[in-house]
Amino acid sequence: MTKNATDLILRDRLQFTLDALGDQATVYGRFDLSDYTSALERKGLSIKEVQFMVRNPVNPSLNNTGMWDQSGYDSEDGNATVSLNSGLKIYATTRAYEDADTVGIASPDVLCIEEWQSYVGPYDLATGFPGNFTLIHNKYGTTDLHPDGFPVVTDLLIGVAADNLKTSADTTLELDVMLIASPITITQKQLTEMLVQGQDQ
């Protein structure tokens, strides 16, 4: 998206730690926007774009780049004789949904969603190689869900959930978040709608 002269570029870094099964129940990080928003002053932001980048700075197999290995399960583990799935879901919202499995592109107050999924087919025990391997990345951006921008007067919540993402325990991943937003004056109608939505949460 083209950046206008009045647009702000804001960045933050969050962390989440996977358990021994590579799972992460739904958690939220808070993107602080208090310097730019105030309901009392009707000062807000129109969020135009949200970008996510998942990082693993201590990845032993990609230690020079700190890249996150999207494959999830260890592709060299020849002991698996069943199909394996792993998934990661990240989204930006102003509503704290209890579980990420209820969040979709039709969910209220959701700015964007990204999903990563890997599938490893059953291994051929004779060769030690998987039958097939698939990576899927779905991205539903802010410009897709809210082409005119999403007005906010509060902090933004970044939701994360994972299933079977790693075979190693206690893997801490970093999530970089970047926003492009434009300062706006919130109208009384917009403010009323936001307050009503907040009471529905």
Taking the alpha carbons of the first and last residues, their distance comes to 31 Å
| Total count of domains | 1
Order of helices and strands: EEEEEEEEHEEEH
Q: For the largest beta sheet, what order do the strands appear in spatially? A: 2-10-4-5-8
For the biggest sheet, the summary is: 5 strands, antiparallel
Taken from the alpha-carbon principal axes, the silhouette is: elongated
Task: State the helix count.
Answer: 2
> Helical amount among residues, as a percent range?
under 10%
C-alpha Rg (nearest Å): 19 Å
Q: How many β strands by DSSP? A: 11
Question: Can you tag this structure with a few keywords?
Answer:
11 strands, 201 residues, five-stranded antiparallel beta sheet, four-stranded antiparallel beta sheet, single chain, 44% strand, mainly beta
Walkthrough of the structure:
By secondary structure, this protein is mostly beta strands. It has one domain. Helices cover 8% and strands 44% of the residues. The protein is built from two helices and eleven strands. The protein has helices at 142-145, 188-200; strands spanning 8-17, 24-31, 43-55, 84-93, 110-120, 123-124, 129-130, 133-140, 150-152, 156-163, 172-185. The strands form three sheets. The protein has a five-stranded antiparallel beta sheet with strand order 2-10-4-5-8. A four-stranded antiparallel beta sheet has the order 1-11-3-9, with no helix packed on it. The chain is elongated and about 70 Å long. The two termini are 31 Å apart. The relative contact order is 0.33. The model has no long low-confidence stretch (mean pLDDT 84).
